[in-house]
Specification:
Trypsin Inhibitor V, Chain A, about 30% helix, about 140 residues, alpha/beta
């Protein structure tokens, strides 16, 4: 790599080093507005930006997203998209409390969270319809 470094002219090298110092190790991502877009496009756009996407429902169009557009997230953070299909329960094992709360507000369903840490169990099974469900109990561990 030293040979490579000597190929760069000193100005370029200095610019690269300064750039390294000003950016944090985890890239920050500005969240795109995907409401109204096709589910496929939305998933590609968000995951392509480095975010972790959870899709609710099997619809072909996005009707809501858990993080508003232009919000800044760190690479690897979760964005939940709600489609126009039937709402079904995602597998939330390993989720953080804040992600569960985002899901709760997106779905308009109360989540009763107990414990601390990350989701260990959920009272509504993965892929089960959320139609008529008023509360989901979640245990963190």
């Amino acid at each position: 790599s030293q040979m490579l470094a000597s190929i760069f002219n000193p100005v370029m090298k200095r610019a690269l080093e300064e750039d390294k110092e000003t950016t944090t190790s985890t890239p920050q991502i500005k969240v795109a507005d995907v409401v109204g877009k096709s589910t496929t496009t939305a998933k590609m756009k968000l995951s392509g930006a480095g975010l972790f996407v959870t899709t609710i429902g099997n619809g072909n169009k996005v009707v809501a997203q858990s993080v508003s557009k232009n919000s800044v997230l760190l690479s690897g953070e979760r964005v939940i998209i709600l489609t126009n299909g039937e709402k079904t329960m995602p597998d939330i094992s390993g989720w953080s409390r804040s992600d569960v709360l985002k899901l709760s507000s997106l779905l308009g369903i109360k989540f009763n969270i107990s414990g601390a840490g990350y989701v260990n169990s959920q009272s509504v099974a993965t892929n089960k319809s959320l139609s008529g469900v008023e509360m989901v109990n979640v245990q963190l561990k």
